[in-house]
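Q: Can someone sanity-check these two? First one:
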Amino acid sequence: MIEVHDLHKAFGEVKAVDGVSFDARDGEITGLLGPNGAGKTTTLRMLYTLMKPDSGQVRVDGIDAAVDPVAVRRRLGVLPDAHGLYKHLTARENIDYFGRLQGMEAALLAERRDALIQALDMADFATRRTEGFSQGQRVKTAIARALVHDPENVLLDEPTNGLDVMATRAMRTFMRKLRDEGRCVLFSSHIMQEVGALCDRIVVIARGRVAADATPDELREKTGEANLEDAFVKIIGSEEGLAA
């Protein structure tokens, strides 16, 4: 479980995150939704300890990220917006490298790596260097690398960005599998159809603040809109109108 309480982060005069609070629960997919510049990526970076908040608290499975960031990182599997693969290593070698960074024993690492290669349908490119990979192959490798240490909490920043239809469908199936295993899955996306199909709960961020935190059905009911995209537009419009 990931608990976020009153996070603040400013860059000079710009308040990128201005008091964000929400919970992402085990056994659920929580969507982080908002327009460009809303503060989603900054929030995610604070959650996985890449960036320190100016104030506020992040707890992962009860551990305060400010007190023990190393323990928090071990409990997280992260697919950031920049996938950062080592292009001269094969997909298998990229996965193994991150497993060793997590202190995994060789036998367990091999077992987890091979299981992920099978689950993500990577067998035909696992032994190739990642230089020249398609977007789908890069994303799959990055996800396998992020999950090799078997974390209970998974953070995905736009995981289907740039994927073709078949790869997107496979990724959505894999995310549901993670949820059904009881993991906490938190992901950001701009694709409303994806959010509606996957999310048990949606946190809408606008202008660095939480504008809504509800199930998809609750958001539609709250706004009086049958379509989730229309509900999102109404929520964002109301938030920006209040802030003007």
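And here is the second, same format, sequence then tokens:
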Amino acid sequence: MRSIVRRLALIALVPAALIGVVAVASPAQAAAPTVAQLQNDIVAATNVQRVKLGCARLRVDAKLAYAARGHSAFQARTNTMSHTGSSRSTFAVRASRAGYVGALAENVAYGYRSGGQVVAAWMKSPGHRANIANCKAKAVGVGAYYSANGTPYYTQDFGTR
């Protein structure tokens, strides 16, 4: 009996990787971030950039977020990335329809796997960077939506109020 206990104790000390118990997920197997996670990460990364550039942090506006989410859903359904939305709408029209007055600008993107990657890409694009760096912006709404094939689409709407 004492021999069995010693053997079990020794086996417990063997690292799990040596006996093939540990499973490691590859990047392709890793779970995709939730839509809420992506949206929150984009807001946080955007505010980090704005503070670095000397602008105030943006507050999240529910009406802008509603407009942005709707546009991301449209892009995902149609597999297109464009500032032109359903019924040829513009970001200002979509924001107004959502009840927001004071729409300022919009950033769109698709395919990036994290919020940080999206913002990093926008910061490398002069027009998108200008939207993030516009200190007149006071509010933001972010929409993320996965298409049927799993591609994420993003919309970031800025407002003056």
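A (reply): Looked at the second one. The first strand starts at residue 59 and ends at 60. The helical segments are 2-13, 35-52, 62-78, 91-97, 115-123, 126-133.
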